[in-house]
Amino acid sequence: MKRRRQLSLSRIALGFFAGLTLSAEVPRARDEQVRRQIEAELHETLDRVVDERGFAERLGFAYPVQAPALPYAKLKEMADTYADKAINEKYPETWVEEEFARRHRQRFGPWRVGTTVTVMLKNGTRFTERIRAIDQYSITIGPKEIHKSDLHEDSLVHLDTTVAANEIKLIKMKLTSLHQRLVAELRQKTARGFWNKEGYILVEDKWTSKYQVFRDRVDERRERLTRLLLPALEDKHYYLAGFRKYKEEWYEPAGAADRKASDPEEVGQIKAFFHNLLSGRPWHVALVAGGAVTLIALIMACFAARARRRR
User: Fold this and answer.
1) Domain coordinates of the chain in residue numbers?
2) Which of 98, 110, 100, 109 is CA-nearest to residue 169?
3) CATH 2.30.30.100, domain 74-196, yes or no
4) Environment class of residue 62 by beta-carbon count within 10 Å: exposed (0-12), middle (13-18) or buried (19+)?
5) pLDDT tens digits for 76-129?
């Protein structure tokens, strides 16, 4: 986990370092040494400041959060196999026909002469008698002859194959729709159980490992802090290493002073300072009029001159 975090932060640091402007005077070996010092302090600071246990607790995850043992593709294959097995056991492809036979077949068995049946009329009247005769238009049950048009649909399906076929088709369509819904619900239920057991949760309709969710939150926090800390760490370590910054570039001290002293803008401020001073203005007024950086430029120019003489 630590190695992954360091790699992630190294990419951030490299992106930041790529934006630094170093003069040709800065030796590469010293520059690389300073960068290593900056990264070392950055990692140490982030490890101390970013509370990974707290992130895990807020997410409701056990700490330390474990990475998945198997690749996602392999787990997806296992999840599908697990769900298919559960579905085939409970709702096989034959489920519609089996369910129809179990719940509805008896409703559509043909009536034959000599059998005793319960007849229901459209007005709801019921009576049980033995069938004495059946023809194209009526049925004689006991002493009564009943026209088929007076029969309730539940009784008519036993005598009219067309009505029975239409009713059977409608029932099977409903059973098929029910089967599809039950299969989808079971697949979702088994998938949830499988993925949760493997350490995954649903994030925007996609199964994502708790470890990935945890790492994304932690890395996001570390990246924000990295962008805040790196500029200050740069100034600290390059300065302690003896470099000086001038106009966003790092130089050896003498090089920075030379450029500051020869900068037209700085020279103009120095000239303004002496002009104001020779005009009789107090030195502090001349300093303000010449620019707040004038005194610094003068001091750095003096140091640069002394460094050249020592050479």
Assistant:
1) 2-68+202-244, 74-196, 252-310
2) 100
3) yes
4) exposed
5) 999 999 999 999 999 999 999 898 888 877 777 777 888 888 888 888 888 888
